Amino acid sequence: MFVGLGRLVISIPGARSLKDRRRVVKSLKDRIRAKLPVSVAEVGDLERYQVATLGIAIVSNDSARCSEVLDAAARMAGGARDAVLADVATEIIPLGSGGSGVRGGIEQALGRLDAPDRPWNDSDDDE
User: Fold this and answer.
1) What pTM, to 2 d.p., does this model score?
2) Radius of gyration of the chain (CA)
3) Hey, which residues does 8 pair with through a beta bridge?
């Protein structure tokens, strides 16, 4: 399992108010969500009229797919009418086969952290 994360910083030179800015940001977020299987959130520069920072996340079983989708999101932001893509940063985090690298959560609740190399096995529930 892989988690792809992206940060897009966009400049909105025509924004003269927060209302102008929100219109551009909302439009871009909606277009990205409609075309790509990602989560998008505004994560920074919330009060600046002419700058916005968006965070993007995708989960996939293929790191190449994560990279492909993050690149597509950056291209969409770069092609926005009222905004200029100022910065892009991406990272892909591997979490092991089937998410076996994730610690805590259900594994911890079931006491399965003591054997990290042991594959998940539902037959253990019968013991």
Assistant:
1) 0.77
2) 19
3) 54, 88
